[in-house]
Design goal:
- This protein has 206 residues and is mainly beta.
- The protein has one domain.
- It has one helix at residues 60-66, and strands at residues 2-3, 10-13, 17-21, 28-33, 45-51, 69-76, 82-89, 92-98, 101-103, 113-118, 126-131, 137-143, 153-158, 171-177, 188-195, 198-205.
- The chain has a five-stranded mixed beta sheet, with no helix packed on it.
- A hairpin with a 2-residue loop joins strand 15 (188-195) and strand 16 (198-205).
- The two termini are 25 Å apart.
Length: 206
């Protein structure tokens, strides 16, 4: 399982941790065991996604203070998901720290699918949409209330839409849609599920 993004390392998922590669040369930048983050009790990782973002209101000084940031979603087979903040370093593996999740509702493991979403015009500029074992969709939105020198927290809430049917032969597609120019709503996500000849389409505001 692999996650990558512009100007980000390639992240490979192994049985007990993460491996980081240079995106351009694929040189090995180092590894991180899940036990180093206290995540070894949640079972093998089953879903992986990478996002980037910072609040639109941050000044150039605040952006410089924060440095290059990436956020990694990890879904597990037998525990709650995790979001890890990656601080990028030149020619080295990023430093990693576990972010606090503020959960109104708890996804049921394992996480089946996840997609990253970014909105640079927003104060909640990035996050993830994940589908759990019950086919319910959850939003995980990063909140930067403490400014550039403090780690953000992650607000987790269940989408109000009813759960989507999921089966082994389902075909999934994710997309994010930015609002039209001058719009006041943020990006949305769509999930398309094919069961036989029937298509189910669902859409949520992000």
């Amino acid at each position: 399982m692999v996650a990558a993004g512009p100007q980000s390392p390639v992240v490979l998922l192994s049985e007990d941790g993460l491996q980081f590669l240079c995106q351009h040369s694929l040189a090995d930048l180092g590894k991180l065991k899940l036990a180093e983050l206290g995540l070894e009790s949640r079972g093998p990782a089953a879903a992986l996604s990478l996002a980037k973002g910072r609040p639109a209101s941050w000044t150039p000084i605040a952006n410089a203070a924060a440095g290059p940031l990436r956020f990694l979603f990890l879904g597990f087979t037998s525990g709650v998901p995790a979001v890890v903040q990656l601080r990028l370093r030149d020619k080295e593996a990023p430093s990693c720290s576990l972010l606090r999740l503020v959960m109104e509702d708890r996804p049921r493991p394992p996480i089946a699918h996840v997609a990253a979403f970014e909105d640079p015009s927003s104060e909640t500029p990035c996050g993830f949409v994940a589908f759990d074992a019950g086919s319910a969709a959850f939003r995980l939105r990063l909140r930067f209330a403490g400014g550039p020198l403090e780690a953000p927290c992650v607000d987790v809430d269940r989408c109000t839409s009813e759960a989507l049917p999921m089966a082994a032969n389902s075909s999934w597609s994710f997309g994010d849609f930015l609002p039209p120019s001058g719009g006041v709503t943020g990006p949305s996500c769509a999930a398309l599920v094919q069961l036989g000849a029937k298509w189910t389409v669902d859409l949520w505001d992000y």
